[in-house]
Write a structure and sequence with these properties.
The protein is α+β, with helices and mostly antiparallel strands. The protein has one helix and three strands. It has one domain. The longest helix has 52 residues. The termini are far apart.
Length: 139
């Protein structure tokens, strides 16, 4: 008598693995996107906290591209990885005059003009929406 699997047994295993894959892959993909969103929010909070500390020490916000924050207030500008967009991962900062100056660059946005009413505000310069429908620039 020969040992081995029958064709029906092999097909049954392939079917079960396929069903598990069809169920698991979308859930895993959603979890990865959600994790990226939460990471971006946490990174934004860290940059804002570094700005608060800078302000507490200097009584003003930086007028550069946030490079004066490191290494004292933050080790580096944290990476921004916007899911469901065509923006590449970046740690770049785009300076602008006001929060209404959204260009969808996919970078961090920072208002570095001291005469602006929004001076010292940092945001995500992206008009794409997250999984709940909120625009990233509105965080």
């Amino acid at each position: 008598m020969r040992k081995g699997f029958t064709l029906i047994e092999v097909m049954l295993v392939i079917l079960i693995v396929g069903v598990i894959g069809v169920i698991a892959v979308p859930k895993i993909s959603f979890a990865i996107l959600k994790t990226k969103e939460k990471s971006n929010i946490a990174n934004l909070s860290s940059i804002r906290e570094a700005l608060r500390l800078y302000y507490a020490d200097n009584s003003t916000y930086p007028t550069d591209d946030l490079s004066s924050l490191y290494p004292k207030y933050i080790s580096k500008i944290l990476e921004l990885d916007i899911p469901n967009s065509f923006h590449p991962k970046t740690a770049s900062v785009r300076t602008s005059n006001s929060v209404s100056d959204i260009t969808d660059s996919g970078m961090w946005g920072y208002i570095n003009i001291s005469s602006s009413a929004d001076f010292g505000y940092v945001f995500i310069d992206c008009t794409h929406t997250d999984l709940s429908g909120k625009r990233y620039c509105d965080y």
